[in-house]
Specification:
globular, metal-binding, GroES-like_sf, 7-stranded mixed beta sheet, about 350 residues, Rossmann fold, 2 domains, NAD(P)-bd_dom_sf, 6-stranded parallel beta sheet, alpha/beta, 11 helices, Quinone Oxidoreductase, Chain A, domain 1
């Protein structure tokens, strides 16, 4: 039987979000209803609110979430009611050309729930953020979007792996292949950049250089594992990174901002045959121009990192285990916990750079 629950809705472009009653249908074939315990407030949710992703309003916001599976539909075997899960926005299909080649983290046919959640008052269909919509007491997802992890972890910590933290850690470990003794530079020290710093530290990088315009963020980056910091408002970051790496440049440079200016900095701040990883998300109008001879002459690899090139079934349980062992302190990413009706204020604090992550706890 369909249920009515509270959820945070973005009704229109740049309009304040509000808490509404939404209808969550029973799960159909391949679907699951999840009782949400915690959900992080991510920049992607703000982009949805601003109309920067699509104009399919109203949106049911929230996607960095963890909770308990309440019910499952026909044919679901990987999760069962009572399982503690992290939600992901790339449920792999197992059938596309990437999956069949043994590269499911590149799945080209990821999917979401087929049924729609609706507004109780009007029956209007909602567009769930990244196919999840987890600023709600319960949500409907494809069962493949649920990844079981150790239930002893705090939901407020676990949910962050659903997007930003996984994107950053994966950019370093999966995409950048950071290894023992490497030098790494990370440009942009928000949630994703700090996660890339933590991932580089976890992988055994000898030198991790954090670059940002804000000294507050650089201090946080040191707490995440940065060995050196560069304020790019005061110092040329390319020259500073080269100076800190013997004049050569870093083995891996991660652009966690996603602007042409920062990408060029990353490109020229890497060593010969080094790797550039773009994990910051650009906007559609941005263009990049580089001398083709420089692209050829410097060698190495220029990579984009989708969701940290993660495979949730492999990476989420591993990172939760590392956290529980005390080797990866995910709690450092949680600045504050808030209620559903405080999301609008959390967006403002995010915009001002006052928080790393606000987490809605239900």
């Amino acid at each position: 039987m369909a249920q009515e629950v509270r959820g945070v809705i973005a009704p229109g472009k740049n309009e304040p979000v509000r808490v509404e009653t939404i209808v969550v249908p029973d799960p159909g074939p391949g679907e699951a209803v999840v009782q949400i315990q915690a959900c992080g407030v991510c920049h992607t949710d703000l982009h949805y609110k601003q109309g920067g992703i699509s104009d399919d309003f109203p949106f049911l916001l929230g996607h960095e979430a963890a909770g308990i599976v309440e019910s499952v539909g026909e044919g679901v075997t990987d999760v069962a009611p009572g399982d503690f899960v992290i939600l992901n926005w790339r449920a792999v299909c197992g059938r596309c050309r990437a999956c069949l080649r043994g590269r499911p983290w590149y799945c080209f046919d990821t999917h979401n729930a087929k049924q729609k959640m609706t507004l109780a008052a009007t029956g209007q269909e909602l567009s769930p953020a990244l196919g999840i919509g987890a600023f709600a007491e319960k949500t409907l997802v494809a069962a493949g979007q649920c990844t079981k992890v150790d239930p002893s972890v705090s939901p407020a910590v676990a949910g962050l792996l659903g997007c930003g933290v996984m994107a950053g850690i994966g950019a370093a470990i999966n995409t950048g292949n950071v290894g023992r003794g490497d030098s790494v530079a990370v440009i942009g020290c928000g949630g994703v950049g700090d996660a890339a710093i933590a991932g580089s530290h976890l992988a055994g990088a000898a030198k991790v250089i954090a670059v940002d315009l804000d000294d507050r963020k650089l201090q946080t980056a040191r707490e995440m594992g940065a060995t050196h910091t560069v304020n790019s408002k005061e110092t040329d970051p390319v020259e500073a990174i080269r100076e800190l790496t013997g004049g050569f440049g870093a083995d891996v440079v991660i652009d966690a901002v996603g602007r042409p200016e920062t990408y060029k900095q990353a490109f020229y701040a890497r060593d010969l045959a080094g790797t550039v990883v773009l994990v910051g998300v650009p906007t559609p109008e941005m263009k990049l121009e580089l001398p083709l001879l420089d692209v050829f002459g410097r060698g190495g690899a220029l990579k984009s990192s989708w969701y940290g090139d993660c495979l949730p079934s492999r990476d989420f349980p591993m990172l939760i285990d590392l956290h529980l062992q005390g080797r990866l302190d995910l709690q450092k990413f949680v600045t504050e916990t808030i209620a559903l009706d405080e999301v609008e204020n959390a967006f403002e604090r995010m915009h001002q750079g006052d928080v790393l992550r606000s987490v809605v706890v239900l």
